[in-house]
From TrEMBL:
Protein's gene: mtaD
Known function: Catalyzes the deamination of 5-methylthioadenosine and S-adenosyl-L-homocysteine into 5-methylthioinosine and S-inosyl-L-homocysteine, respectively. Is also able to deaminate adenosine.
Lineage: Archaea, Methanobacteriati, Methanobacteriota, Stenosarchaea group, Halobacteria
Keyword Cell inner membrane on entry: no
Binding site for Zn(2+): 76, 78, 225, 313
The protein's name: 5-methylthioadenosine/S-adenosylhomocysteine deaminase
Recorded catalytic activity of this chain's protein: S-adenosyl-L-homocysteine + H2O + H(+) = S-inosyl-L-homocysteine + NH4(+); S-methyl-5'-thioadenosine + H2O + H(+) = S-methyl-5'-thioinosine + NH4(+)
Length: 447
């Protein structure tokens, strides 16, 4: 059968309108063929039926009592950090990284990264996420997991040059460029790549300039952490006499396809600059709150025309990969930051987690309309915490949880049906990741 039908639900359409509709998906193309009444969808799928089930369309996902939304986009994470979930909490960014996370990551093997990425992929599929951006190491292993899990991703090797000699620093830049060149288009095109310097302070200027120039040649975007904490912004201002976003522009890292994680401590000139350049910002509210990094000016960024997407950051600073939490946190924190309850309304949070996420990453998806990528999640609204349904969009932003997702579809393939993940063996993934995490901690303890 060529087609998949999603029937009986309400559908979140572009612009935030919710209407009763069925959806026809062309599974070979991985796209939405039609959105409309059951008759319109029947007509779109034509005679595509399965005689073994009495002539009914065999691949049907029941969305009755639910809302069909674009698959959620986790636009900044380090997916293998699921192995470090709960490993080190309650510290600010710099000591957390230096005292706990980086020593643990020094002991990570490629097999650990694969085990952690599988666990993260499982968690994302179970919470309705169909696309993510990932910056980490052993990215061939992450790519293999993305391929098997059926997800969509923009992947890159994270470069850090500080504390390295010239040969090692250059090798790290080269590895990021090689990953960007070699993995682009993998998994039937579901994997795209980027050059990913870790940040403007952890990669020295000469390497930043060289890497960005080569990335431009290769036609891959740039993704980095920017303006996350004052501890990161202040040295740039002190040493260079300019703000980080101006520095990013100077090294040619501020382009229309680029996307920066955090953007917490950005002043008005930087907000304007991001808007003018078309560089997207990935807001990571839970991570920013947990590490006490600060409150991103989400309303002002959006008003300046900046594409603001949402990211969980790694599971060690969140501590989950549930983008529903991010929607709620973004709406709540955005209000607090602006001292205005209307600053980031529910519809804005949902838009950031869907269309803006796909746009920031330059990936298809993020909207439910004919011709768009068939990346979907069906959220069950039949639950006590979602009753009554005055406004389904309000529920998506403020009350729903990842565990309310009934089905997940990416590129026309059903990844989860009735909460059963079809592309990964959930039990084996959890067991393997738990064992890898426990061995890792033992190795760190005896290092
Ligand atoms: C070099 S690969 C990516 C690198 O980033 C680290 N990381 C995780 N969370 C954050 C964050 O909030 N800010 C900066 N860096 C972060 C991760 O542990 C990897 O080492
Ligand atoms: Zn990060």
């Amino acid at each position: 059968m060529t087609h998949l039908r999603v029937t009986g639900g309400r559908v979140l359409r572009p612009g935030g309108r919710v209407e009763r509709a069925d959806i026809a998906v062309d599974r070979h193309e991985g796209t939405i063929r039609a959105v409309g009444s059951p008759d319109e969808v029947d007509e779109a799928v034509g005679g595509d039926v399965d005689e073994s089930v009495g002539g009914a369309a065999a691949e049907t996902l029941d969305a009755a009592g639910g809302i069909v939304i674009p698959g959620l986009v986790n636009a900044h994470t380090h997916v293998a950090m699921t192995l470090l979930r709960g490993y080190a909490d309650d510290k600010p960014l710099d000591p957390w990284l230096r005292e706990d996370i980086w020593p643990a990551e020094a002991e990570l093997t490629p097999a650990d990264v694969e085990a952690g990425a599988e666990l993260g992929a499982l968690e994302m599929i179970r919470s309705g996420t169909t696309a993510f951006a990932d910056m980490y190491f052993a990215m061939d292993r992450v790519a293999d997991v993305v391929d098997r899990a059926g997800l969509r991703a923009r992947l890159g090797h994270g470069v850090v040059t500080v504390g390295k000699d010239e040969a090692d620093a250059r090798a790290d830049v080269e590895e990021s460029l090689a990953v960007a060149r070699e993995l682009d288009g993998a998994a039937d095109g579901r994997i795209r790549t980027a050059f990913m310097p870790h940040s403007l302070t952890t990669v020295e200027e000469e390497y930043l300039r060289e890497g960005v120039a080569e990335a431009r040649e290769a036609g891959v975007p740039i993704h980095l952490h920017a303006n996350e904490t004052t501890d990161e912004v202040d040295p740039i201002v002190d040493e260079r006499g300019e703000r980080p976003i101006a520095y990013a522009a100077e090294v040619d890292a501020l382009g229309p396809d680029d996307f920066f994680a955090h953007g917490v401590h950005v002043d008005d000139s930087e907000i304007d600059r991001l808007g003018d350049a078309g560089t997207a910002v990935v807001h990571c509210p839970a991570s920013n709150m947990k590490l006490a990094s600060g409150m991103a000016p989400v309303r002002r960024l959006r008003e300046a025309g900046v594409t603001v997407a949402l990211g969980t950051d790694g599971a060690a600073s969140n501590n989950d990969l549930d983008v529903f939490d991010e929607m709620r946190d973004a709406a709540m924190l955005g209000k607090l930051a602006a001292d205005d309850a209307s600053a980031v309304p529910a519809a804005a949070a949902v838009e950031m987690a869907t269309r803006a996420g796909a746009d920031a990453l330059g990936l298809p998806g993020g909207r439910i309309e004919a011709g768009a990528a068939a990346d979907l999640a069906v959220v069950d609204l039949d639950a006590p915490h979602l009753t009554p349904v005055h406004d389904p969009v309000s529920h998506l932003a403020y009350a729903a949880r990842g565990s309310d997702v009934r089905h997940t579809v990416c590129d026309g393939e059903v990844l989860m049906r009735d909460r059963e993940v079809l592309t990964l063996d959930a039990e084996a993934v959890q067991e393997r990741a738990a064992a890898a995490a426990s061995d890792l901690v033992d190795r760190v303890g005896s290092a």
